[in-house]
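Justification of resources, computational component.

The compute hours requested in this renewal are based largely on the per-chain cost of generating structure records like the one below. Each record pairs the submitted sequence with a full structure-token output. That output is archived, and it is also reused by downstream analysis tasks.
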Amino acid sequence: MMGIRTAGDQDLVRLARSGNTRAFDRLMIRYQDKMYRLARKMSESEEDAEDVVQEAFARAYTAIPGFRGESKFSTWLYRITLNMAIMRRRRKRYEHVSLDSPIETSDGRMQREVEDTSSSPLDEVISNEARQILEQAVSSLPQASRTVFVLRHFEGLSTEETAGILRISVPAVKARLHRTLVILREHVLDCVSKRPVGDCATGFTA
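The structure output for this chain reads:
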């Protein structure tokens, strides 16, 4: 009899759908690194990425009885992780409090004090500028463009797999990726000529 540890995804999914928690745990162990990598690329911090993975685990656990196998399990799990990351970014955006707004104290209203955590000019010079510029550019992409770029170029998924996760057509993935690459290329080339890296403007549309 095949053990849980060596079973394939299809067998584990079948067992997990019937309530076998060991099978579900094995699936999560198998995919947790990929889930975290995707979550990290779509999140603002490591802490957010960890929360996204935990939320994705919980959502997958409650949803797996309804998984019909119309797509690969990995595609289904990527979609859940991606949705959790997008939902968390939206929540944080809504919960954001302007740092320019004053706060109420017993002594009246006063401005917020924010610690300056920016890198020094020397740190920016020493760092890998091209990688830093690319990460800045990718983080500023609109959600749809950023998602396609992350799945194809950071996660190494095929065009077909990306289309399956996003539930769009293959031509749509190719068109969206092409537009994104053109914008990123122009942005990076423009930024490389500027000093310091922090002068590089972000916030564009694709």
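Strands lie at 103-105, 108-110. Confidence is low (pLDDT under 50) at residues 96-127.
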